């Protein structure tokens, strides 16, 4: 069956790329033909760009802007490796930057079903158009509508009253809905008046061996403490330094500079995202992982590594609690610097990590949900 996938724009986030890749792998393994819709932010008018250029130029002259005026022109170079991975490994639609183009695409393609999921697809502040992710463009078209591991990202309601009204009506047209966080089940019931099932992120439905095939060097080489920190802070750095001292291991990372206020044409190379394969290999080669990323935590688990997960409130803490409670690893999550807690985590029996995700009830529930949904396409 031909299946469209609606997810957030890909390319600027490793976790987003890997969940899109993983869901396609699951669908391909089930004999389907998945296509991820390349829904980008709505196109802007020439007048908008002219006004933006003028404003930024004025800010630059006043010394109030550190970023290059048209830094967006540098983004294709910065994301060259992630975009290459997408082009070679994920089947994508053409670029779509409006609801009108989205409707035209579905008019031209004969999809049997559309799946919404998963990486914060139902979080309005991250969405190019939140109504599109509730499939408003399908109108009364007869097509199977599914949500797999769709995520609100947080445990509070961020929709406006108008968005809530529209999306609640659209949600009732779905054939079945699953969400990634247990808090999402309550949000669906309370605000959308629909039932939802909690399932795992698509990245956790793939076997570790499949990820090892993407690694570009020997995974037997151990390098030390692998860090993947999205939002730097003093307390997080102090955690890493403390672990380095206690374990007598050095840190390493596969991560670019992300403070674009420091970006110039002379240091552009520092901002280029490393290859997706390098990012994954880092988990495989590590002795221990320290991360404030949801998918960083996922890959530490998938590669069976001891890890410390640093809570990241700005990006949605409920995702971390839900993931780690469902895998019986919630004690690996910390929200501030606490040396006593760090000692406890480092002294934790290693057999805790000899877990197989496919033995967990949440894994079986996730596979069962997807299998049942796909059988009826």
TrEMBL record:
Protein's organism: Alcaligenes endophyticus
Polysaccharide pyruvyl transferase domain mapped to chain residues: 13-313
Pfam families assigned: PS_pyruv_trans
A Gene Ontology molecular function term of the record: transferase activity
Protein name according to UniProt: Polysaccharide pyruvyl transferase family protein
Annotated keywords: Transferase
InterPro entries to which the protein is assigned, alphabetical: Polysacch_pyruvyl_Trfase
């Amino acid at each position: 069956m031909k299946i469209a996938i609606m997810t957030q724009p890909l390319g600027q986030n490793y976790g987003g790329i890997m969940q899109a890749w993983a869901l396609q792998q699951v669908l391909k393994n089930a004999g389907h033909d998945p296509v991820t819709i390349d829904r980008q932010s709505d196109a802007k008018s020439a007048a908008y760009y002219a006004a933006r250029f003028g404003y930024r130029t004025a800010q630059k002259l006043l010394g109030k802007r550190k970023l290059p005026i048209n830094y967006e022109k540098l983004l294709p170079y910065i994301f060259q490796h992630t975009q290459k991975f997408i082009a070679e490994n994920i089947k994508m639609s053409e670029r779509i930057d409006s609801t009108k183009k989205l409707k035209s695409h579905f008019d031209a393609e004969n999809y049997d079903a559309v799946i919404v999921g998963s990486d914060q697809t139902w979080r309005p502040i991250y969405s190019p158009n939140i109504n599109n992710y509730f499939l408003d463009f399908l109108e009364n078209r007869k097509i199977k509508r599914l949500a797999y591991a769709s995520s609100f990202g947080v445990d509070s309601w961020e929709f406006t009253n108008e968005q809530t009204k529209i999306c609640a009506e659209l949600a009732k047209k779905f054939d079945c809905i699953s969400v990634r966080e247990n808090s999402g089940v309550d949000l669906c019931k309370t605000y959308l008046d629909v039932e939802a099932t909690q399932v795992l992120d698509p990245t956790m439905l793939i076997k570790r061996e499949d990820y090892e095939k993407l690694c570009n060097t020997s995974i037997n080489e151990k390098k030390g403490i692998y860090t993947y920190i999205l939002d730097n802070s003093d307390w997080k750095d102090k955690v890493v330094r403390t672990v380095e001292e206690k374990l007598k291991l050095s840190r390493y990372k596969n991560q670019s500079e992300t403070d674009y206020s420091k970006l110039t044409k002379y240091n552009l190379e520092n901002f280029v995202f490393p290859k997706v394969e390098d990012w994954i290999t880092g988990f495989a080669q590590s002795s221990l992982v320290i991360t404030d990323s949801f998918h960083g935590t996922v890959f530490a688990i998938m590669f069976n590594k001891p890890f410390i997960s640093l809570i990241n409130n700005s990006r949605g803490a409920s995702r971390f609690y839900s993931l780690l409670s469902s895998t019986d690893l919630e004690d690996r999550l910390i929200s501030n610097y606490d040396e006593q807690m760090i000692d406890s985590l480092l002294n934790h029996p290693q057999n805790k990590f000899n877990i197989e995700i496919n033995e967990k009830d949440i894994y079986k529930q996730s596979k069962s949900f997807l299998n049942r949904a796909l059988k009826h396409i």
